[in-house]
Known about the structure:
By secondary structure, the protein is α+β, with helices and mostly antiparallel strands. It has a single domain (2-179), classed as Beta-Lactamase (2-Layer Sandwich). It has eight helices and seven strands. The strands form two sheets. The chain has a five-stranded antiparallel sheet with strand order 2-1-5-4-3. It is globular, with a radius of gyration of 16 Å. It holds the Pfam family MLTR_LBD. Keywords: DNA-binding. Residues 1-162 form the MmyB-like transcription regulator ligand binding domain. This is DNA-binding protein.
Amino acid sequence: MQTLLDSLSPHPAVVMNPWFEPLAYNAPFRFMIDDLEALPPADRNCAYLHFTHPDWIAAHSDHEQECAAVVAKLRAYHGESVTDPAWAPLLARLREESPLFVRLWEQADVSTEPGRVKRIRSRHVGSLSVRAITLLLEENPRTRVVVYQPADRTTQERLEELAHRIARGTIDGPARVRHLRAAT
Length: 184
């Protein structure tokens, strides 16, 4: 799977389970917002990051709309596996740490809304407009591959620049240069 994800570069790509836990990803996904691996493993849940992490919150100019889409997807996936014990700790943590999550969860919206353009501010290359394309794995339909396709030429160029910086071994952050660890 890692070879497939890496071959999709410069497009960010991730394998996620229904709880928004990234199981595998390529380097452009790792650095699309900032460095995912700089976070403790327990905090790398993408739903959790949308609601609690300052860099992820700031990365979405339409933050509340993005969070509403995340909750609607969580509800859709929750409906498919409501008895799975993995839901309880995630939902409890989100309820405890995010009043916005509580409000949106109580609205009971359910959706997978394919093709929506997401606007993301990358710490490394600036504004990106991407469409998240979701593919289900035949071997495990609850696991999905999400590929972020550029919605415009500028985003394509910026994703290529991100991949180029990764290949060079440095990422230019706002106040420092980071030397990369090997992507997992």
